[in-house]
Structure formats: C-alpha cells, structure tokens
Amino acid sequence: MVDIRVEIDRLDRDLMKLLAERSTYVDRAADIKRVTGEAPDTQWRVKEVLDNARRNASDNGLDPDFAEALWRHLLKLSISQETDRLNQN
Prior knowledge:
Elements: H1 2-36, H2 43-59, H3 64-86
Helix pairs in contact: 1-3, 2-3
Keywords: Isomerase
GO biological process, one term: chorismate metabolic process
Pfam families: CM_2
C-alpha cells in the first residue's frame, strides 16, 4: 500500500499543477469576457466542455459519468472564479 499511496500522491501533485495552469486560463478568459461582454456561464460552452470530458474519459478508460460529475463541479468553480474576476474593478 505504501507504494500505491506514493504514486497517488505524485499524481495528485501533477493534477494540482495542471489545475493551477487551467486556473490561469480561466482568469484570462474572464479578462477577455470583460471586454466582449460574454457571460461566464455560456451554455453552449458548458455543454462542449462536458461533452469533451465524457469523450476524454471514454478514450482513457475512465467512467464518463464519473468524469462528467467531476467536470460539472470544476465548471461550477471556474464560473464562480470568472464571475469574481469580472466583478473586480
């Protein structure tokens, strides 16, 4: 179990790096949306991201329902992040 836990911890660190990188793009999207007036929760884009999550999960042997649930939460947090940034000066 020790070896398994070490690998899970390594993957968690890698995931955090990727999520931090993703977060910078969410901020950049908010900055662009401030100029264009686009809403943070554009429904066609939400659907596209969820469809991508399901497809990417399937392509990698992961349960698409699990991936969609995870991504729904990620999108909720990302939309909140964009909204907060849009509401800043």
